[in-house]
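Person: Please comment on this record:
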Amino acid sequence: MKYLFLLCLSVNVVVLHGCGNAKGEPGPEATVLGSSPSSAASQSEQPPAAPAFTLEYLMGKFDPAQHPDFVRVEDRYTDGDTYYLRKDTYQAFKLMWDAAMADGVKLVIISATRNFERQKQIWEAKWTGARAIENGANAAENYPDPVERALKILEYSSMPGTSRHHWGTDIDLNDLDNYTFEQGSGKPIYEWLSKNASLYGFCQPYSPKGPDRPHGYNEEKWHWSYVPVASQLTRLAEEKLRDDMIRGFLGAETAVKIGVVEKYVLGIDPACK
């Protein structure tokens, strides 16, 4: 419920295309009416209907640059690269960015939406050893067993078709090193996010592992998710996504053996569900 108020503040009329194919072409339209531009009170009485998402959307099989519900992030919010986010997520982020700046904290987007093809490039570069994994190792040389190799890559990188970054709701902020947020220059940033991000609808899905999150990716203090929309996609994954649907890239055969949907797609902090 703490995210409902934020979602109800949206004044946009969202027109969702039910799915996109691998080339990013939109599928059949599903029109979803948002709230009208009236007072916050009346908006909260008439919340917007939930978007109609599809498995192809969930799995990132569209081009965010061409999708009508996405927008290019302005350079002032990024490290200078080109990024896209859902319009609702972007609006919430801008409000959070303003609040952080007012407190002397600058949030910088260093990664946002990655579709299936982009995630495939990242995954296969690590799978083949063309790109080192996070411990600096060549995964192809150090982990010849396919399942072991996949598990090492999965410590921080998603299989194509399973990444929350497909959804346009998730962002990486400032740095990709937990140490930066624990001891370094990012410590005040993380402290601010931990205290305030939920006020704008954001949650850290990959919290430390423990009884409430025994499986999944390692902790990522930089990764934040816009829950009012991401929670809908998490439920869709729980209801419809199966391990045998994860295919189309090197090492995909390990998805079923690992149980990647239950352990990784759904292996998030319970507060983010």
